[in-house]
Amino acid sequence: MDVKKTIRSAVAVVLFSLLIISFAFFGVHDVFKPVASDTVLKVGSREISSAEFKNEFNRRRDEMQEKAQRPISVDEAVAQGLDTKLIQFMLGNEAIDAAITKLGLHASPEMVAAQLRESPAFFDQVTGRFDPKAYATVLGENGLTPKIFEKKVAEDITRLHFISAMTSGLRPPLTYGAMQGVYALEQRDTRFIYLDPGKVAAPPAPTDAQLQAFLDENADKIRAPELRQLTVVRFSTAALLPTMTADPAQVQKVFDFRKDQAAKPETRTLVQVPAKTQAAAQAIAARLAKGEDPAAVAKANDVSVISYANKPKSALPDRKVAEAAFALAAGQTSGPIQGDLGFAVVKVLSITPGQTVELEAVRKQVEDEVRHRAAELKITEAADKFEEAHSGGADIVAAAKTAGGQVFTTPPVTAQGVIRGGQMAPGLSPKLLQTAFGLGQGEESEFQTDQPGEYFIVRVDKVTPPAVPPLAEIKADLTRAYLAQARDKALKAKAEDLAARLRKGETLEAVAASVGTKPNKAEGVNRINAQKQAQVLGGPLISGVLDGKKGDVIVVPAPQPGVLIAKIENIRAAPPEQVARFVGQSRDQIGQQLTEELGEAMIRAATKTVKTKTFPDRARSAIGAEPLADATVKSKDKAG
Questions:
Q1: 52 shares its domain with 128
Q2: Contact status, residue 423 vs residue 258, Cβ threshold 8 Å
Q3: Is residue 303 located within the same domain as residue 398?
Q4: CB-based contacts of 76: which residues, under 8 Å, 6+ apart?
Q5: What DSSP string runs through 502-545?
């Protein structure tokens, strides 16, 4: 187990995560596509491998875990349909890319180069310039070549521009908004009876036989989950930081190394007009110098203008164009430039001077960095000591004490990190729990990176299998549950009797009086204020009133313990003035809705134009889930 290598490899993970973030706007779910011998999804000549599907599935599952603030197993994610939804999502994206390619549309090399050079992961951290070596190295470490990567980036840019072009200018007709307004603002009045649990007699105490039958009936709900007692060893950079000091000489050294990066370089706002020949560039330069609109000049020459807003010199993809552009004064237009990518003309619109940085202005940041580096070095040294002691025969607890690592033993915990009593066990991250529940009793993990600067080893000391507790152990809680269910059944039966009387024609007042209460009312319920009214009256009542017909009687749970018996007494058309306001206020939202629907329609249409084949069994196998019995799904062949 190479502990030091594990720790240092975390740097590459952080770097690559920056790369992913930098392209999030373009949907890089299909950018990082390694070559694989098996296929989960095939769209025409395009293929998605098991490895790519697994990576995307795990990324989506991580998002689910972060949102839920708890671990989510592969089986739970599959039960929620993540695998099938992801297959359809990726199929749609690949299909629309294939359809766009058939139309002959593609991003220009200049657009791809500009996008790549804006990615922080590809810039030299000292000079702030785009570093082709770092670019090739990062891609190579992840099994990619610049050619494959740039092809996928071009496809993402093309898709974005295509969908933007298809949906820009889309405006919903006023009648469409009016129909939605009529539906959303239709008003409904209801009166209802609240039947609280005290309106029915308390059920008798259950016998042991009844409790045992209740226990058997609800065994799946009552069964205690698997529990595991864990011993955890942690090495934490964050825990060390408060004890670290910043060496002044090292602070000065780091500042001297980074001061160019910390400074703000000069930036310029400019336009670049490509040209097909030197003569065309000469003509373009003359027109721009006269003050003509760059977009009009570009259109007249059958090219597209490229705009740069407050960009440093390093952001321009063509080195020769950058040199020429940053030699001009504000308002000046260049002559023809023979760049690496062809002829071009630039016009500088404005210049923002660069700023230098003094040590005192950034001292705290530099000191924090020095302290953090010192803590990381100390963690690396501690990891080496741990590895040496553990390899020499010491168990993880003894090795951790030798190295200065943190050691603690947990009480029995579930896979979600819950201990008896329903509380969350401290110090257990989702990754640690996932690792621990993948081990057998007595087994210990390899050295794991939890998050940047945090590392752990976990040992499973004891596994308690899931089991239904004996009746004697949970009799008190089971009795309470039994009585609550019995009263709930009696209450619902009483409510249905009252509802039946209303349906037969008795008045709400008479029915309410028979149980010693009076009717309540809710007027003007509509789909716009539904959420607000549901906070007071409960979602089930509001949903039932909006879904029913005039005269309907419904029985729904109350927001507090009890049941509501409601009658829909009136349905009124939306006031015209409210509909008019709705149309004016929601037109942008309705337009966005239409845009999304158009995008979905384009994906459906694209899917029908190409031959597709999905392999859900391979997808499930890739993520470690049970395969489907009849897993291969083929679409109908259709000429594109």
A1: yes
A2: no
A3: no
A4: none
A5: HHTT--HHHHHHTTT---EEEEEE-TTTHHHHHHHH-HHHHHHH
- How far apart CA 470 and CA 33 sit, in angstroms, is 52
- Specify the residue for token string 């891609």: 139
Same domain for 44 and 159, yes or no, is yes
One domain for residues 460 and 474: no
As a whole number of angstroms, the distance between CA 395 and CA 409 comes to: 14
d(CA 27, CA 93): 10
Residue 447 included in any domain: yes
Does the residue 15 lie in any domain? Answer: no
Task: Choose the final residue of a domain: 317, 352, 387.
Answer: 352
Q: Is residue 375 part of a domain?
A: yes
Tell me the residue ranges of DSSP E strands in 198-266. 227-236
Is residue 433 within a helix (H) or strand (E), and if so which, with residue range? helix 430-436
Q: What CATH number is associated with residue 333?
A: 3.10.50.40
Position 431 pLDDT exceeds 70? yes
Residues 121 and 156 in one domain: yes
Answer yes or no: do 515 and 557 share one domain. yes
Burial 206-227 (b: 16+ CB within 10 A, else e): beeeebeebbeeeeeebebeeb
Domain count, the chain: 4
C-alpha 207/C-alpha 214 separation (Å) is 11
Amino acid at 380: T
Residue 285 and residue 334 in contact, taking contact as beta carbons nearer than 8 Å: yes
Per DSSP, the three-state class of 414 is coil
**Residue 510: Cβ-neighbour burial (10 angstroms; 0-12, 13-18, 19+):** exposed
How many C-beta atoms surround the C-beta of residue 88 within 10 A? 14
Give this prediction's pTM: 0.48
Cα R_g (the chain), whole angstroms:
33
Model confidence pLDDT, tens digit, residues 257-307 = 777 666 788 899 999 999 989 999 999 999 999 999 999 999 999 898 999
Residue 205 forms part of a structural domain: yes
Is the CA virtual torsion 208, 209, 210, 214 positive or negative? positive
pLDDT of 439 strictly over 60? yes
> Pick from 598, 628, 632: which is nearest to 612 by CA?
632
By three-state DSSP, how is residue 292 classified? coil
Q: Which domain holds residue 478?
A: 187-223+470-572
